């Protein structure tokens, strides 16, 4: 196959979760089979959950297969130098009908040593939030492993954690080690390192239909937790037809684009771009005549070889790349 450069969309990988609901369908147009659909993995190369192209010439081809054949064309020169032909990010939508477990993720060093994996630095963009919806991010005050274990034993851990009310458009950047949980009534877009390593530390004493509780990872978590107070919320501008910086870290950069009309892009070949549509409709125009249409709930991979294009429409987009 020759590399035919166009915007790539992948078949969503739907994950049923004890805390999931139906908003992936009603809000983001995903096909779901149950009333507890918690996650839609939009772009993934996690083993066992590798994305399959859904549109165009490469329809039915896995992302890994494309990366083996066209690594620089898709990833870009800078990304290829850092990661070889591995796709370094994972893109998801999450619908929390109920509270998620309280959890954290290890850093690169621990994840490599223990799991031969990347760590899991991530960010959240709130697409929708019910009235009085909250998230948990970090401790209210500086803590310690001793205090953490005491409250865990007393089933009072939530009382020493920081609860934050959320609304549509809020952005949170979660560095590794940060205790966190998405609260009931929140739908988010999540951008993270390619990793599925999670240390669950408290699950609200829930059990499944068979009376079983989910596994906790207290021993692994103790030396991975950040006990300092963290400031995770990120503010950003709202300039129309511009990339408004929300998060910049070694793993990814995310801009929020309020698109209203037309926006031209002329890029180098250093990095792929991903567009996550959280509101509205838009299309990618190439060569003034090729148009690819997208809508709310779509996640689009623009290969690095696509260097000249326009975005047209009325939408809210997240633009993600590696710099």
From TrEMBL:
Kindly indicate whether the keyword Zinc belongs to this entry.
yes
A single Pfam family it belongs to is: PMI_typeI_cat
Specify the Mannose-6-phosphate isomerase cupin domain's residue ranges.
247-320
Which top-rank group of organisms is this from?
A: Bacteria
This entry's Gene Ontology molecular function terms read:
mannose-6-phosphate isomerase activity; zinc ion binding
Q: Which GO terms describe its biological process?
A: carbohydrate metabolic process
Q: How is the cofactor bound?
A: Binds 1 zinc ion per subunit.
Sorted keywords for this record are: Isomerase, Metal-binding, Zinc
Residues holding Zn(2+): 105, 122, 180
Indicate the residues that form the catalytic site. Answer: 200
Against Gene3D superfamilies, the record matches this protein to: Jelly Rolls
Cofactor(s) in the UniProt record: Zn(2+)
Q: What residue stretches are annotated with the Phosphomannose isomerase type I catalytic domain?
A: 11-117
What protein am I looking at?
A: Phosphohexomutase
């Amino acid at each position: 196959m020759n590399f035919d450069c166009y915007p790539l969309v992948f078949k969503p990988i739907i994950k049923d979760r004890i805390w999931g609901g139906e908003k992936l369908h009603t809000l983001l147009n995903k096909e779901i089979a149950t009333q507890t659909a918690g996650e839609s993995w939009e772009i993934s190369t996690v083993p066992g959950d590798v994305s399959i192209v859904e549109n165009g010439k490469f329809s039915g081809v896995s992302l890994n297969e494309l990366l083996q054949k066209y690594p620089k064309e898709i990833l870009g020169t800078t990304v290829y130098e850092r990661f070889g032909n591995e796709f370094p990010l994972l893109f998801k939508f999450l619908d929390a009908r109920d509270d998620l477990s309280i959890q954290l993720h290890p850093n690169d060093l621990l994840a490599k040593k223990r799991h031969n994996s990347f760590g899991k630095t991530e960010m959240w963009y709130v697409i929708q939030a019910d009235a009085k919806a909250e998230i948990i991010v970090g401790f209210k005050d500086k803590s310690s492993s001793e205090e953490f274990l005491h409250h865990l034993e007393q089933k009072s851990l939530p009382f020493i954690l920081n609860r934050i009310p959320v609304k549509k458009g809020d952005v949170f950047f979660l560095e590794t080690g940060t205790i966190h949980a998405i609260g009931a009534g929140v739908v988010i877009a999540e951008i993270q390192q390619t990793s599925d390593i999670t240390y669950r530390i408290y699950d609200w004493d829930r059990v499944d239909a068979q009376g079983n509780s989910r596994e906790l990872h207290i021993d692994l978590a103790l030396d991975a937790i950040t006990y300092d107070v963290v400031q995770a919320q990120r503010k950003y501008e709202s300039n129309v037809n511009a990339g408004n910086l929300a998060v910049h870290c070694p793993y990814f950069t995310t801009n929020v684009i309020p698109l209203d009309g037309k926006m031209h892009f002329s890029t180098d070949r250093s990095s792929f771009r991903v567009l996550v549509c959280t509101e509205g409709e838009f299309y990618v125009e190439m060569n003034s005549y090729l148009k690819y249409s997208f809508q709310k709930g779509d996640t689009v991979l623009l290969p690095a070889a696509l260097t000249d294009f326009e975005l047209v429409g009325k939408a809210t987009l997240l633009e993600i790349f590696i710099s």
